[in-house]
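Key result, reporting period 2: structure in, sequence out.
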């Protein structure tokens, strides 16, 4: 049986970084700073500095997508190159849903499929 796949977001040279929202711990008094850029190859590059000062400690990027029916899907696939640190992928079933589904993973400095 062939698995059906759908691409939710694919960074490329014409991607608009403004389609993504940055949220730093400054929303609760922290001083961490995240940044999203599109590099010359069209890859989305998320970088920054996470600080634990002032009870902070996070930077995130988020992308709101149109609601899609997920009954025929069983997983998400993320293709990325990291920096050796731990990250989390989170999703939720509705804009106003308080809880998220979360998956933590460690990155490498090579391209990975998570």
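The corresponding designed sequence is given below.
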């Amino acid at each position: 049986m062939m698995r059906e796949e759908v691409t939710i977001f694919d960074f490329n040279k014409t991607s608009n970084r403004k389609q993504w929202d940055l949220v730093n711990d400054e929303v609760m008094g922290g001083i961490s700073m995240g940044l999203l850029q599109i590099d010359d190859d069209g890859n989305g590059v998320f970088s920054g500095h996470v600080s634990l000062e002032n009870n902070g400690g996070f930077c995130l990027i988020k992308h709101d997508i149109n609601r899609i029916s997920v009954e025929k899907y069983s997983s998400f696939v993320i293709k990325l190159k990291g920096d050796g640190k731990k990250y989390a992928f989170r999703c939720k079933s509705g804009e106003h849903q308080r809880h998220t589904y979360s998956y933590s993973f460690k990155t490498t400095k090579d391209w990975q499929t998570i």
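The chain has two domains: 17-63, 74-114. Residues 17-63 form one domain. This case is discussed further under Risks and Mitigation.
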